[in-house]
Amino acid sequence: MKNLSSSQIRAMYLDFFKQHGHTIEPSASLVPKDDPSLLWINSGVATMKKYFDGSVVPKNHRLTSSQKSIRTNDIENVGKTARHHTLFEMLGNFSVGDYFKKEAITWAFELLTSSDWFGWDKDKLYMTVYPKDTDAKKYWEAAGVAPDHLIDMDDNFWDIGQGPSGPDTEVFYDRGPEHDDLKPDDPENYPGGENERYLEVWNIVFSQFNHKPDDTYEPLPRKNIDTGMGLERVTSIFQNAPTNFETDLFLPIIHKTEEFSNNKKYGVNDQDDVDFKIIADHARAITFAIGDGALPSNVGRGYVIRRLIRRAIVSGHRLGIEKDFLYKLVPIVGEIMKSYYPEVLEQKDYLAKVIHSEEKRFNETLSDGLDLLNNLLDGLKESDDKVVSGKDAFKLYDTYGFPLEMTREYLNDEGYSVDEDGFKSEMQKQKDRARNARGDKKSMGVQRDLLIEIKTPSKYVGYDQLSVPDAKLLDIIVNEKLVDSVDKGIAEFIFDKTPFYAEMGGQVADQGIIKDANGDICAKVTDVQNAPNGQNLHTVEVLKPMNKNNSYSLDVDRHFHSKVEKNHTATHLLDQSLRNILGDHTQQAGSLVEPNYLRFDFTHFGSVTEDDLNKVEELVNEQIFKELPVNTVETDQENGKKMGAIALFDNKYGDKVRVVSAGDFSVEFCGGNHVKNTNELGLFKITSESGVGAGVRRIEAVTSGDAFKYLNNEENILKQIAINTKTNKLEEVPNRINQLQEEIKELQQKQETLETKIANQQADSVFENVQNAGNLKVITGVLKVSGMGQLRQLADTWRNKNLSDVLVLGTSIKGKANLIVAVSDDQVKAGIKAGDLIKAISSEINGGGGGRPNLAQAGGSNPEGLAKAMDAAIEWLQKL
C-alpha cells in the first residue's frame, strides 16, 4: 500500500480524470446559490445540477471535482462512530450525456488498481450492483473483477422521487479479518453489510431514467454519470487508520486540543475520544461554513453552526477545558487544508473572531441553562416527579444549546431522567417547520431537451446598441415545440443578434418591442433568459403574425434600461464601499437590480451601525461626485485578476471575461450593463438596512430621480412633524421632540405615583378584610389598578406586613382580567402552592396561568368572572 497524504490523494484523483479529458471544477461554496431545496451543499453532484437538468450546457461534458460538503441529519452520531462527519470532501467524476457505464467502470478500476495511481490489491475490492443491471456486471468482469467479488444488492438503485434516477454500483475495500467486529456467520458480515471490515469507498450512479409523477420510469434523452468517493474514508485506507479520525485530516486538530485539555490524551479513554473527535470534526465544519459566508444564528444554517460550536464547547468542558479554545483551532484547520483551500489561512483572523465571539456568548448561556435546569429540578423535588418533560429538555437544547445527552447525564447524576420521546417529538416539530419553510422544491429538475438541442448561434450586442434593425428570427418555440410561425399569444424567440439583456447576476432582463419591416409593432418582449447553450431566449407576447427566418427590428426600452444601468453601477460602488468601511470579509450574497431600486445582500458579522451606514453612503456619493469614468475591458481571467478584479460569489467565468472599473475605486468581473460615468447616477440614497438571514445583511437603495423623490418625501414628512410640534425651523425639530419626550416622561411618572397612591388606598381597605377559610386566614379583593405590576407591588406589601396566610387579588384592564395569588412562606412549607390555586380559579375568567409556589398569576378574557374567582378561592382553600 502506498503511503499518501490526503492532499496527494485528492490531487491524484483529480489528475487521473483530467488525463481522461475531464475539466476540474473548483470546490463551490457550502452555501447553495439559487437552490432553495438545500440548506448546504451536501455532495459533489449538488453543484452540477444546472448541467444535469439541462439549464446550462457545460463547455466540457466531462467534469471532476473535490467538493467540500456538509450533512447535518445525524450530528448526534459524530464522534461516536468511525466515519460520521458534518463536513467532508466528496471526490467525484461526472459525465453529462457523454460517456456511460463502460467507461465509468473501466476508469474506476484503473484508478483503484493501477500501480500508476492508487495501486490497491484487486482481491481486496468488492462491488455491489443492481441485480437487473447486467451491463455493470459485464463491465466489472471485463475490467478484471472476479465474479465472486460482485454482489447483487436490491438497494443499488438511486432514486430521490421525481426526476433523474438509475442503478448504481458501490465499491468496498476489504480491510482484513483483523477489523472483523462481527462473527463470521453474522448476516451483516459481507461487503455492503453493517460492519467495520468492508469499507464503502465509492458510489457510481448511472443516471438513465426519469422518474415521472405517475411513478413510471422513462429513459432520459441523455444518460449521465455521477460518482462520489469520500476523501476521509480513502485517506483512512492509505494511512491504515482504524477510523477516519486517525488520519492527517483530523489528528493535528486532536493533538492541539490535547494541549488545551486537563492532561487528557487521545486513545486512552473511550468517552474522552468521543469528545476529541467531536471537537475535531466540528472545528473543520464551522471554519469552512463561516468562511463561505454563513454565520451563527438561531435559524437555518446559522442554527447549525451555533449548534456545532456549542456541542464542541460542551465536549471541551468534559475534557477539562475551562477557557475559550475553539477559535484557536482555526489555523490548524487552515494548515491541514492549505494545499487546496488557501483561503482558510487568508481569513483565519476573521474566522477566529467570529468563533471566539460565539464561544464567549455560549459560556454565558451555559450558566443560564444550568440555572434553568436547577429550577426544573427544584420543581420536580416539590412535586415528587422524577422526569423532566420533553418540552423542557428541548428548550434547554434549542435555547441554551444543551445537547440531550448532556441534559440526560446531568439529571442522572441527580437521580432524575428526561422524557426522551417528548424531546424527539419537539425535535420533529422543529424539523417539520424548517422543511415547510424551505417549501416544496424539486431537488433536481428534468432536462428540457428541446433547448439543449437548439445550438443556433446568437450574439448579444446590447453593450453598444439598444436597437437592431435587422435581427433574423432563427427559432420559434411554442408549447415546447419548434414551429415556423406564430400568429399570437406567448412564444419564445432566438435571434441571430439581440440588444436585449438576459437576466443574470442580479440584473433584470430588458423589456421592449419588436417591429416588422413596415415598422408595425408585432410583439412585446416581456422577459429574456439564458438558454442552455448560451443564447438569449426572449419570452414575447405576439401581437401580429411572425415567421421564422424573417428579419425584425428589436428595440429595447431605453428609459427602463438606463435606470437599470444606473442601479447596477451603484451596486459596484456599494460593494467596494462596504469593503472599505466594514472590512474585506464582506462578500456579496445576492443582489437585485431593478429600474426603480437596488437590493444588495452581503455577509457581515453583526449589525451595521448607523455611523458606518452613513459612512458607506457618503463614500458611494463621493465617487459619484468625482465623476469617475466607468470602463469595461474584455480579457481573460488571469489578466482580470491581475487588474484587481473581484469575482463575485463562486461564479464559473468563461475564458473571456468583462472587467468593469469605476476609476481606481472599484474593479469587478461583471457581464452586466453600466453607465459611462458615475456622474450619471446623480445621487445615491440608502433607504433601508436589515438582517435577512444567518450573517447576511441587506441594503436597499435608490439613485438618480428615485433618490430625489425619496429625499423630497422625507423632507415633506419632516415639515409635517414641524407643523404638528409647532416648530418654526426644521433644524429645531429634534430638540422639540426631545423636549416633548421629557414632558411625557414627567407626566407618566406623575401618573404612576397617583396610581400607586390610589392602589395603596384601595389595598388598605382590602387588607383590613381578613376572612377565614378553614384554618387559613385569607384576603381577597378586586381592585382598580393599572395592571399586573401594581398587583405584584401590593403582594410585596402584603408579604412584608404578614397580613394573612393567602392573598388573592384581581383587576380588570381594557376588557382583560388579571389575577394574582400569594402564599406565605409558612404555608408553602405546609404544602399550599400558589400555582395550584391560580389554576383552580383562573377558569372563572376564561384564562390560565402559573408561577412559583409562593406567587402565581393568571390572565383571562372575562373580567366579569373576577368576583366568582374570589369565591372559588375561598372554597378551594376550605377543602384543604
TrEMBL record:
Metal-binding in keyword set: yes
Coiled coil stretches, renumbered: 723-764
Function description: Catalyzes the attachment of alanine to tRNA(Ala) in a two-step reaction: alanine is first activated by ATP to form Ala-AMP and then transferred to the acceptor end of tRNA(Ala). Also edits incorrectly charged Ser-tRNA(Ala) and Gly-tRNA(Ala) via its editing domain.
Domain Alanyl-transfer RNA synthetases family profile per the UniProt entry, residue ranges: 4-713
Cofactor binding notes: Binds 1 zinc ion per subunit.
EC nos: 6.1.1.7
Protein's name in the database: Alanine--tRNA ligase
Sorted UniProt keywords: Aminoacyl-tRNA synthetase, ATP-binding, Coiled coil, Cytoplasm, Ligase, Metal-binding, Nucleotide-binding, Protein biosynthesis, RNA-binding, tRNA-binding, Zinc
A UniProt-annotated Pfam family: DHHA1
Residue positions binding Zn(2+): H568, H572, C670, H674
SUPFAM superfamilies per record: Class II aaRS and biotin synthetases, Putative anticodon-binding domain of alanyl-tRNA synthetase (AlaRS), ThrRS/AlaRS common domain, Translation proteins
Biased composition (Basic and acidic residues): 172-186
Signal peptide: none
Catalytic activity: tRNA(Ala) + L-alanine + ATP = L-alanyl-tRNA(Ala) + AMP + diphosphate
Family: Belongs to the class-II aminoacyl-tRNA synthetase family.
Cofactor annotation: Zn(2+)
Enzyme class: ligase
Gene Ontology MF, one: alanine-tRNA ligase activity
Domain notes: Consists of three domains; the N-terminal catalytic domain, the editing domain and the C-terminal C-Ala domain. The editing domain removes incorrectly charged amino acids, while the C-Ala domain, along with tRNA(Ala), serves as a bridge to cooperatively bring together the editing and aminoacylation centers thus stimulating deacylation of misacylated tRNAs.
Region entry Disordered, spans: 171-192, 422-442
